[in-house]
Automatic annotation (TrEMBL):
It comes from the Bacteria. This is Glycosyltransferase involved in cell wall biosynthesis. It comes from Endozoicomonas lisbonensis. Residues 158-293 form the Glycosyl transferase family domain. Pfam families: Glycos_transf_1 (PF00534).
Length: 324
């Protein structure tokens, strides 16, 4: 019988869509290609008792009522996809609350060694199953013969690009200050989670800094923006994430935050910078932009069904897991 899996997350997740929200849809797509029927919790999902497993995205607060209802149903294995990285040290009360939240789950999914090491430095995983996979990258980012629709639509010739949620933790303000006045357009495209923060960014922006609406994920416009940018930039206070891997898959030159995640996943493809050092960011950007632009080799995107194989094996066979 085909396994049925319900994907859940915190209630206000889709008010502002970023990488985590796209990830839920990519996982559903990958699972449904791999003999697992996966639904995202909502009006079109089925009654809870019809699902054998629950995969919950994020440890953001607000999910307690949903988890309580799931626990009343009973019988499902609970799998946590934590997407957790502390920028500042959490206080004791916050850690206690998250530990209580973690107690709802039988297994935890990690997408990198760096994420697992960071998580284990705060939480005890004794008695829980650990599932290790790689980040999910849509096959759209292996597309060839991409049009120049982005440059034509915005009248840009030479530009750097940063896509994703705009908020303090993502640290766009430092890039605004670093790129202001450089001989290149710097384009930020993403949903705004903090209006006051984006106003602060715009206050410091020179005429070469542009903020545009979020582009539909994986659309021709999105692919075009990445394929023809002179530099892809992502300098958050935590780590860049899958959006940087997507840019790398299209052959972009990368300027990224130095972190254990970046060094593990992308260090051979990127120039790394301290996200708080404006002059350092500026110097590294100038260094990259003064080099001749060459078409970088585009690495093969790993099929999503191959990426999630350890997770599928866990779902299909209760003994197919790595004990913590």
């Amino acid at each position: 019988m085909m396994k049925r899996v319900l994907l859940t997350t915190y209630p206000h997740a889709f008010l502002h869509r970023g990488g985590g929200e796209r990830e839920i849809h990519l996982l559903r797509e990958a699972l449904n290609l791999d003999s697992v029927q996966a639904d995202i919790y909502g009006p079109s999902s089925h009654p809870l008792h019809t699902y054998q497993d629950i995969i919950h995205f994020s440890m953001m607060g607000g999910s307690e009522l949903l988890l309580n209802e799931i626990n009343k149903t009973g019988g499902q294995r609970m799998i946590l996809w934590p997407n957790l990285w502390f920028v500042e040290e959490p206080d004791t009360r916050h850690l206690e609350s998250l530990t209580s939240f973690l107690n709802n789950f039988d297994a935890v999914v990690f997408k990198s060694k760096a994420e697992e090491v960071h998580f284990r430095s705060y939480f005890d995983l004794a008695g829980k199953d650990v599932i290790r996979i790689s980040p999910l990258v849509s096959p759209r980012f292996s597309q060839k013969d991409i049009s120049t629709v982005f440059r034509e639509s915005y009248g840009l010739r030479r530009y750097a690009l940063w896509t994703g949620i705009i908020e303090p933790q993502k640290n766009q303000l430092q890039a605004v200050k670093a790129f202001s006045g450089l001989d290149i357009d710097m384009v930020f495209s993403g949903d705004v989670r903090d209006e006051a923060y984006v106003r602060e960014c715009k206050k410091h922006a020179a005429p070469n800094i542009h903020f545009i609406h979020s582009m539909p994920f994986g659309s021709e416009l999105h692919l075009s923006a990445l394929a023809y940018c002179s530099l892809y930039v992502e300098l958050p206070m935590d780590f860049p994430g899958t959006s940087a891997i997507e840019a790398q898959a299209l052959g972009c030159r990368l300027l990224l935050t130095r972190s254990s995640w970046t060094e593990e996943m992308l260090s051979e493809f990127a120039l790394l910078a301290d996200p708080e050092n404006i002059e350092g960011i500026r110097a590294k950007a100038i260094n990259l932009l003064t080099q001749p632009e060459v078409q970088l080799p585009c690495p093969k995107v790993v099929e999503m069904t191959d990426v999630i194989l350890p997770l599928v094996e866990y779902l299909q066979h209760s003994n197919a897991f790595t004990q913590s």
